[in-house]
Amino acid sequence: MAYIRKRGKTWSYTVDTGIDPVNGRRRQKTTSGFKTKKEAELAAAKVESEVVDSSYVEVTKETFDKIAQEYFEVVAKNKMRESTYENRLSSYNNRIKDRLGKMKIKDIKPIHVQNFYNGLIEEQLTTSFVRTLHNLISSIFKYAHRYDYIKVNIMDKVDAPIPKAKEMHTWTLEEVNTFLELAKDYDTYIIYYLAIYTGMRRGEILGLRWKDIDFDNNKIHVTQNLVLVNNEMKIQEPKTKGSKRQIALTSAEMLELKKHRIKKAFETDLVVSTSIGTPYHPRNLLRNFNTLLDKCNVTKIRFHDLRHTHATLMLKLGENPKVVSERLGHSKVSITLDTYSHVMPDMQSASAEKFSNYLRGQNVVNGDKTKATKK
C-alpha cells in the first residue's frame, strides 16, 4: 500500500518495491514534486502495478563507466578471446570513456551517442571502426538492461554507421609470378608462397607448425593462429569453427615446403621463424612485404589481398565456390559469394558460353572443339 503525504506545497509517495536480497531489508521508492494528491496516487499505483507483475526496475544512478567496467569484468573477459578483449578494452578507454563514461547511464539519450559517432567520423575515423565502437556500446547497454540497471535500452534507437566496403585489389597471374620470382631470394618467400597458394591468413601462416603438415596426404591442417595482444605475440585457436580446416595441396607445394625446411638454419616447431628460431613478428613481415612491393612492377596491395588473389584466381578458373569457401575457412559459402561477387559476372559469361557450346554440339574438351555428328 502506497504512503501518500503532502510536503509543503507538493505531494509525494512512498512505495514498497521488494526485499533487498543482500541484507533482507525492505526496499522503498519515494518520489516527490506532484502538484496534486491525485497525481501522486496515480504515479504510486503505476509503480505498485510494476512491482506486482515483476516489471519494476529501480534505475541505477551509476555512471556509464561503472557499468562498462562491470561488463568487461563479468561478461567480456569470459566471452571474448584474449586478443579481442584487449582490443575492445583499449577502444573503450581511448575513445568512449572520456565522452560517455562520466554520464549517468540513465541520462544518456540516443542523440548523445549519435553525436558521438558523428564526431568520430569528422575526425576521419573509418566507419568500420566506428561501427565496432557502436557494437561495444550496444553490448554494454544490453548488459545494463538485462540486469535491470536501466528500464529501456536506448541503443535500439541509435543508427549504426554503415561501413564502406574496403576496395579489394588482387594480382593477375603475371603479377603473382613476378612477385614470387623476386621473393625467392628472401627468407620470407615461403610465407608469400603459402598465402598465394593456400589463401591462409597471415596469422595462420605465422602460427603454422611442421606437425600441422601432412606430407603423406598433401594437406595442411590449420589449427592455430599467431596474434598480437598488447604488442606481444601469442598463439591462439582460430577465431571460428570454420577456420579450423584442412587445405589440400599438390606435390609441387609440398616440395617447396620441404625445400624451405632444408634451407632453415635449424629445426623449429614453427614453419616460419626468425634466424634465431623465434616467431616471426607480423609487423616485420609487413615491412618486408612493402620493401618487395617497391622493388617489383606489380599493383600495390595489402598482405591480406594475397588471400583475395588466391580466391579470385580459383573462382576465375571455374572452381566451385563451396570448395573455395572451405579453403578460406569461411563459416558460410554466402560470405565467399558476397566477398568475391566481382568475379561472378565473368563466371556467368564463361558458363553461358560453355552451355551454349554444349547445346550447339560444340563441346570444348581440353581446348579441342568437337562438332556433333548428324544422323
From TrEMBL:
One of its GO terms (biological process) is DNA integration. InterPro entries: AP2-like_int_N, CB, DNA_brk_join_enz, Integrase-like_cat_sf, Integrase_catalytic, Integrase_recombinase_N, Integrase_SAM-like_N, Phage_Integrase. Pfam families: Arm-DNA-bind_4, Phage_int_SAM_3, Phage_integrase. PROSITE patterns: CB (PS51900), TYR_RECOMBINASE (PS51898). Residues 62-145 form the Core-binding (CB) domain. GO terms for molecular function: DNA binding. Keywords: DNA integration, DNA recombination, DNA-binding. The keyword Nuclease does not apply. Residues 166-353 form the Tyr recombinase domain. The keyword Cell membrane does not apply. Belongs to the 'phage' integrase family. PANTHER family: PROPHAGE INTEGRASE, PROPHAGE INTEGRASE INTS-RELATED. This is Site-specific integrase. It comes from Halolactibacillus miurensis.
